[in-house]
Design goal:
Length: 120
């Protein structure tokens, strides 16, 4: 069992930046960030493979968001720059022992979610 504790959400103006953090209670194979806007399905944002730091992103955030990890702290970060109102959502981190990818189904453990609101 892995517990995930998220932090770092908040309210920011369009064009601003936020950094989300997610601390895991133990080692994992990969971690990802997902988001869910009101009335929409949960969508993949970014993922990182713990062993070598490989990353990938959903296209709308690729040039604005950066996922990274701190091995010593078992923590994953999501640096979000040039935020847009469309980025407004609850952001969830997730951890997997099964693989590395964008499908929610491979992530066994989920954080509680943190609200990100971008005003125009």
């Amino acid at each position: 069992q892995v517990q995930l504790v998220e932090s770092g959400g908040g309210l920011v103006q369009a064009g601003g930046s936020l950094m989300l953090s997610c601390a895991a209670s133990g080692g994992v194979f990969s971690m990802g960030w997902f988001r869910q806007a009101p009335g929409k399905e949960r969508e993949f944002v970014a993922a990182i493979r713990w062993s070598d730091g490989s990353t990938f992103y959903v296209a709308p955030v690729k040039d604005r968001f950066t996922i990274s990890r701190d091995n010593a702290k078992n923590t994953v970060y999501l640096q979000m720059n040039d935020l847009k109102p469309d980025d407004t959502a609850v952001y969830y981190c997730a951890a997997s022992f099964l693989g590395y990818g964008s499908s929610p189904g491979i992530y066994e453990f989920w954080g509680q979610g943190t609200q990100v609101t971008v005003s125009s």
